[in-house]
Amino acid sequence: MIEPIPLPDPSVPDPPDFSGWTCPMPLRDHPNVVMGHGGGGQMSGELIEHLFVPAFANPVLAGLTDSAVFELGGARLAFSTDSFVVRPLFFPGGSIGDLAVNGTVNDLAMSGAQAAYLSCGFILEEGVELSVVGRIAKDLGTAAERAGVIVATGDTKVVDAGHGDGVFVNTAGVGLVREGVDIRPQRAAPGDVVIVSGMIGVHGIAIMSVREGISFGTEVVSDCAPLNGLVAAMLDVTTDLHVLRDPTRGGVATSLNEIAKAAGTGIDLVERQLPIPETVANACSFLGLDPLYVANEGKLLAVVAPGDADAVLAAMRAHPLGQDAAIIGECVEDHPGLVVTRTAFGATRVVDTPIGEQLPRIC
Amino acid sequence: MKYLDEFSDPELAKHLVGQIHATATKPWSMMEVCGGQTHTIVRHGIDQLLPDGVQMIHGPGCPVCVTPLEIIDKALEIASQPGVIFCSFGDMLRVPGSGRDLFRIKSEGGDVRVVYSPLDALRLAQENPDRQVVFFGIGFETTAPPNAMTVYQAKKLGIPNFSLLVSHVRVPPAIEAIMQSPDCRVQGFLAAGHVCSVMGTAEYPELADRYRVPIVVTGFEPLDILAGILRTVTQLERGEHVVENAYQRAVRDEGNPAAKAMLEDVFETTDRSWRGIGMIPRSGWRLSERYREWDAEYRFQVRDIATEESTICRSGEVLQGQIKPHECAAFGTLCTPRNPLGATMVSSEGACAAYYLYRRLQTPAAAGTGAVSSGD
Questions:
Q1: Would you call B336 and A352 a contact, using CB atoms and an 8 Å cutoff?
Q2: Residues within 8 A of A (CB atoms), B 262-321 only
Q3: Is A45 domain-assigned?
Q4: InterPro entries given for it (chain A) (predicted)?
Q5: I want to staple A175 with a disulfide (CB 3.0 to 4.6 A). Which of A113, B128, B170, B287 is the partner?
Q6: 3-state SS track over A190-227
Q7: Are residues A230 and A195 located together in one domain of the fold?
Q8: Which of A134, A150, A177 represents a domain boundary (last residue)?
Q9: Pick from B126, B166, B171, B127: nearest CA to B146
């Protein structure tokens, strides 16, 4: 007779320790997961910090960077994973297949690593047309080829109809980090220059235009792209990049807040220097959204020493994915942990981390 | 950007600010009625540019903020019922009722959906004939016409499974209530341009005359606001109190006759309670008798709601312009956008949220919430 494997009693859950939370609201008033926990803002951060990190506690994870960087067998590796639950599956400028490759490639690139191998896990909902899965797989393969990365292993699961949203994709990836490169948010320091690689808010508005059926006059196409080539061009100029971040969920504002808090530095932005396409600005004005909080997929933020700024900016502008790169602000000693922008009229305002997701306003 | 950049030009703004400084010789307090205007003022830092003593008081014109707790609790109750698809504009989802919000109802299995138009909710009703579809119809004269049109369409098309949970409010009775308050500090009003684009300006001369306050119909872009402030200050300096239209590109004196006719057909005036302020006579609309069948309160018979309001939240005084948000002891400490005690901290147009989001450096209660990496 085979002895059953003892399992924990599911009726006695081990509750996470919420004591010491800076804000009493998150799970006290939300005993269930709500959409805001996945929005990339404060609620996501607190879920990670107070529920996941204690469960997995280890020094590699503790930095909470886009990808983990560690030594293995004499090599310095970066390792990252990301799951994609985007709706709709196909959108102007890409699909969930493109996102699944570029998302992980970019997370690795933000540590200065060139992605080498990816894994790919599909969770398919019963009833989804195989032609849809086929299109996604083809997009995924094409995106991998473009990024110069090999999909080396994968997995497929099928869930009952009604238990998924068509197709979910998870990718994980590994890559090598160049020697001497040490890119992490804690390295931002007063005096450093903040650069964005191009026009912001495009992906989020492209998704919204198809998901919500809202037309903005001209089609907004996602900026979904692999950023490893752009990062390589920047590293060719200097290996001393301090911070890189791809401002995906939560947008530029969230990424800059994460950097400011991690480094304990203030960040001052200049509102008029933010590159925002007219269509994005129009759409945001219409919906009551702030472009600083809208998601991007093919953009990066770089924090570099002032002496390197011109060279890095020039290298970015010479690359097809960095033509609209612009200096948008600097790290400062004032207001540590906070991002502040100077408005076009010369006044100032705080740019905070969003709570959950941005909500279109009523009128 | 056409029609937007023109009204955000820094050079023109500088010019207008200079004119305001040259005109104001005394301290003046004026109220921008609309939450959208509050948002523009605080986001662009317009109030930082005004002369010392010229003060903006933030008004009650945030529809999310003033929707009474009882109606929100009714919404939560209806949204919890099986078979209901509850539709709302996005910013109502986070507004706390008595201890819970629509996000929580959604996470517990309620079918709560964000829509961008009440007509989207009507379409959902057509597509789901076996479900009850309810749209949360809140707001001022701005959002009332499309909601009225939707109910009109539901009746015309014979769609029985659609209903509207109505909590519409009107601006002129609120101005009157503010002026009648013994603590009133308001000396002039920037009236809400979008409201006047629907209703016109006919309701205002009597108010301006009775309370001897200038009322300047004002738009929402930074230059609109500055122009509205300049015109109000000019009147105050001259001792005038007339109605001026500083938003002529959108507002005609007669308003929008088609929208007004639709409101007249579908709604009737009613006394309405404003969250944080209380009952204001004839300040709201409800569905008229002819459209009773499409009234969610009537259809779902949600009664005996016991509301539970925070005892320390002072959003009522904020909404009436009696205190600034940071003058509330709970601001930024007990009350933040993450843990809002009142709706003025929840809504993107609420004065408390605007101060918290943009002004923490200038207010005494600078509070951080210590977010960490989202890890992607």
A1: no
A2: none
A3: no
A4: HypE, PurM-like_C_dom, PurM-like_C_sf, PurM-like_N, PurM-like_N_sf
A5: A113
A6: CCCEEEECCCCCHHHHHHHHHHCCCCCCCCCCCCCCCC
A7: yes
A8: A177
A9: B166
Residue B369 in this model has a pLDDT that exceeds 70: no
Tokens representing B125? 């009703």
Distance, in Å, from the CA atom of A190 to the CA atom of A73, rounded to the nearest integer, reads 36
Based on the domain organization, do A160 and A242 belong to the same domain?
no
- Considering the domain architecture, whether residues A242 and A332 belong to the same structural domain is answered as yes
Look up residue B363 and give its two tokens. Answer: 């207010």
Structure tokens at B252: 């005609």
Decide if B43 and A32 are in contact by the 8 Å CB cutoff.
no
A341 at B interface, C-beta within 8 A:
no
Number of domains forming the structure of chain A: 2
Which ipTM score applies to this complex? 0.73
Q: Identify all chain B residues contacting A348, using CB atoms and an 8 Å cutoff.
A: 45, 48, 361
Residues A168 and A258 reside in one and the same domain: no
- In which domain, by residue range, is A304 found? 185-350
Residue B96 identity: P
Domain with residue A321: its CATH number is 3.90.650.10
Whether residue A139 is contained in a domain is answered as yes
A297 vs B: CB within 8 A? no
* Judgement on whether residues A193 and A162 belong to the same structural domain of the protein: no
In whole angstroms, give the CA distance from residue B357 to residue A108.
Answer: 32
Domain endpoint, select from A177, A203, A218: A177
Report DSSP state, residue B339: B
Tell me, yes or no, whether A147 and A237 share the same domain. Answer: no
Flag whether A136 is in a domain.
yes
Within a domain: A150: yes
- pLDDT per residue over B149-175, tens digit each? 999 999 999 999 999 999 999 999 999
The predicted-structure confidence for A74-121, as pLDDT tens digits, reads as follows 999 999 999 999 888 999 999 999 999 999 999 999 999 999 999 999
Closest residue in chain B to residue A249, using alpha carbons only: B376
Domain shared by A80 and A205, yes or no: no
Between residues B305 and B272, the one the model is more confident about: B272
Using CA coordinates, name the residue in chain A closest to B140.
Answer: A363
A48 → closest Cβ in B358, B361, B375:
B375
Please tell me which of the candidates B93, B140, B376 has its beta carbon nearest to residue A248: B376
